[in-house]
Specification:
Length: about 325
């Protein structure tokens, strides 16, 4: 009798550690007796029936690779009712009994739609933003933070030599987690995030002037992408304080590079769990890390959860960066 097939895809923005998750899905799937297929370029590839056979050796030596060997994409076509039906039909044609979707919240909405169209899906949070409310952690976050920290350390060197203020914009479309963690790790004088309302005079200018009074001569301001405006902010700081200022937008450098140990391990655990859920006949679930344990939630329940920003950590950052 032919084996049941499951498939795995990566979708939305790539994240370091996605390969470790793919590897875990492939190896756990084969271990459970499934035939495992990879789908290239997320939902876009699913619509094109771009499936590849995965065997144990197809995922050799990918743990340390950044990016995703399955490639990724964003697909508007998939989001239509016809697109979902077409994608479900392609899965059925290929004998696919379940799909593991590695991506962010948008990808999970796609996984829910595909599950409702008859193809059981399990989501794994893979995004550098750490913006999935149900999970304390998303694959890629640790690597991205460490990259950002390394970059800000370098910017600090030149900022210090010139007695300047450096405004550094880090990624995070609606989420300030990368900014907060990077800001703390680099001793930023001010950190601006979309979750906390701010006043430029009080939260940036006054802090710079106060710390200058007690001897500080160079300054780092970390701004989350979701706040934006870092170039204008640098100009404003220079105008208001007389301190020469520069803006740097770190951008996609944060999405690349070899994943950290944490990303490799969490991705591996989540990949294993996703296959376990499919093998148990589960559908429309998201794997998450909660209080140090790998758990799972219904996708709708997960998507309806509210993200909680760590305001305590934010207050600590403000207190100790004076
Ligand atoms: N409401 C939806 N219904 C069906 N599919 C969706 C929906 N929203 C998004 N998708 C699909 O998921 C893909 C990825 O979504 P999106 O671009 O929001 O990225 P993401 O998974 O949230 O990752 P990230 O935000 O980290 O880049 C979309 O291109 C689309 O194909
Ligand atoms: O790949 P793109 O379209 O440039 O997406 C950038 C977005 O993706 C992320 O890197 C991850 O969601 C965000 O931080 C950023 O806003
Ligand atoms: Mg998203």
């Amino acid at each position: 009798m032919a084996k049941d097939a499951i498939a795995v895809l990566t979708s939305g923005g790539d994240a370091p550690g996605m390969n470790a998750a793919v590897r875990a899905v492939v190896r756990s799937g084969i271990n459970k007796g499934f035939n495992v297929l990879g789908i290239k370029r997320g939902y876009r590839g699913l619509l094109k029936k771009d499936f590849v056979e995965m065997d144990l050796r197809s995922v050799t030596n990918i743990l340390s690779l950044g990016g995703t060997i399955l490639y990724t994409a964003r697909s508007k076509e998939f989001q239509t009712p016809e697109g979902i039906q077409h994608a479900a039909q392609n899965c059925m044609d290929m004998g696919v009994k379940g799909v593991v979707v590695i991506g962010g919240d948008g990808s999970f909405m796609g996984a829910r739609a595909l599950s409702e169209a008859g193809v059981p899906c399990i989501g794994i949070p893979g995004t550098i933003d750490n913006d999935i409310a149900c999970s304390d952690y998303t694959v890629g976050f640790d690597t991205a933070m460490n990259t950002a920290m390394e970059m800000v350390d370098k910017i600090r060197d030149t900022s210090q030599s010139h007695d300047r203020c450096s405004v550094v914009e880090v990624m995070g479309r609606r989420c300030g987690d990368i900014a907060l963690q990077t800001g703390i790790s680099c001793g930023a004088t001010a950190i601006l995030v979309p979750e906390v309302p701010y006043n430029i005079e009080k939260d940036v200018i006054s802090r710079i002037l106060e710390t200058r009074k007690n001897g500080k001569q160079h300054f780092i301001v970390v701004v989350a992408e979701g706040v934006g405006g870092s170039v204008d902010l640098a100009k404003y700081i220079e105008r208001r304080t007389g301190i020469e200022s520069r803006a740097t937008i770190l951008g996609h450098v944060q999405r690349g590079g070899s994943p950290t140990l944490r990303d490799r391990v969490v991705a591996s655990e989540m990949g294993y769990k996703a296959v376990e859920l499919l093998a148990e006949g589960k559908s429309k679930r998201v794997v998450a890390l909660k209080d140090g344990k790998i758990v799972d939630y219904d996708i709708t329940e997960a998507l309806n959860m509210e993200r909680v920003f760590d305001t305590h950590l934010y207050e600590i950052a403000k207190t100790i960066s004076m």
